[in-house]
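Let's do one together. I've listed all components of the complex below, 596 residues spread over two lines.
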Amino acid sequence: MLALKVVLANGELMTTARRARKSSAGYDLTRLIVGAEGTLGVITELTLKLSGIPEAISAGVCPFPSVEVACNAAIATIQSGVPVARIELLDELQVKATNLYSKLALPEVPMLFVEFHGSPAGVAEQAERFGEIARDLAGGPFEWATKPEDRSRLWQARHDAYWAARGLRPGAQAFATDVCVPISRLAECVTATQREIAELGLVAPILGHVGDGNFHLSLMVDMSDTAEVEAAKTLCERLVERALAMDGTCTGEHGVGQGKMKYLAGELGSPALGAMAAIKRALDPDDIMNPGKIVAIT
Amino acid sequence: MLALKVVLANGELMTTARRARKSSAGYDLTRLIVGAEGTLGVITELTLKLSGIPEAISAGVCPFPSVEVACNAAIATIQSGVPVARIELLDELQVKATNLYSKLALPEVPMLFVEFHGSPAGVAEQAERFGEIARDLAGGPFEWATKPEDRSRLWQARHDAYWAARGLRPGAQAFATDVCVPISRLAECVTATQREIAELGLVAPILGHVGDGNFHLSLMVDMSDTAEVEAAKTLCERLVERALAMDGTCTGEHGVGQGKMKYLAGELGSPALGAMAAIKRALDPDDIMNPGKIVAIT
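Okay, and this is what the predicted structure of the assembly comes out as:
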């Protein structure tokens, strides 16, 4: 993100930056506005940094005996300096859902989906290196490809994940939530969450952006069953508590909105919350920009 | 940068984020504070994301017939997807200065210093690719190496750049300044700046982080010569005006401080300046945190 045009609460049209790739000209208004969920102004124009399509791509899928081993493989890959472009975890339930939905026959165990970008020799070398790391940790076999149609076939389960999850319980309402923890705690966090899902009798496949320590739950809830709705709420509360206890955040991507406002004081403390409220009051004193989200000022 | 601890003007100790690699939990206070030059609080603790030392590194130097061709080679390298880790421009005067200072015999023409990170095969391939791009544009010969001692020898001129520049005029005062423009305008901006340095009779070698469109001038000024001091001020003014006319910024890295406050309104417009002042007033109403820098609130 290079720059924004933003309509402010006072009606002014603000430009946050020029078109240079970097700047230290004053406060970073671009990033302040991007993360503000519309509470500080309305973005009307974006200037983006473009990334070229890589010359070559390799991509593949790899089964693992457990979420822990899968996460360890992801950590080892990153720490060994292999520049992985995408690394996604599907837990066993998510794999099962995609087998049903996409008529695949993947082993119903935790799987990593990986993708590498670079030169033809580079992406082959990176895929081979990942395969060795996976094998050393008792994962695999790692199946990978470079041709677009073969890569699409391998990644199909990942791309179908959302609709596959919905297919697990036709008629149920889907709730998506996410947390993010230090990557060293990710396996522990996912495993404890899976245990809790089972204990509460819920259906919630897990999909993780493991390179970031970030994962998503797709909760499939029968809204006519009040006990199940309550159990789902309990799961979400405990998910956040667990992430915070691991020095993580209540949301890696989805944002705060109204639903996660109550966690911010616990996550960041009252000085940060006070600073956010002060900024909100300064830029939107009449509370007309997406009011009642992120931080309450009345 | 993952998180900060910051002492605020009200005496509170604020934590801006947890240890997760990403978060969307409220306003991005980390980046707001990082770019604030101490005007919103005092940073007392930083949590950084660490990068591993690459398995292999290749690095080299390449002469070019002009700044324009050197910049075109940098653009072509980036656009062809070669993941260059560092790409630095030294103009002909900076090369001459380092020859004198470091007793080298580099051709006194604009040069690019490049570095690639990755696997042994990857960094060799990337260096070869860069060499081909340079040759196609009539640059070169590109000399590169992977052994640490050979890389250090090649990059010595870059590492000595500051002291070499000072060596051009013993006794002169060194002033460093920087601007940043869209990379497509970089060659034009550097070339016009060189012309103006010559016209004003000044000594100011140029060093550019060309991958970002960012470059630095080391102005060597005889402070006892009032006409020269005035000429140096004129050069700096026109440098910023030129960068802004090219949709760039008055500073890519050095920051605003007091010296560049007068350019912010022209660069970003009064709504952005008003937002910065509102944030400053909200977080530091008594103006006790590095007062009188970036934005005036009294």
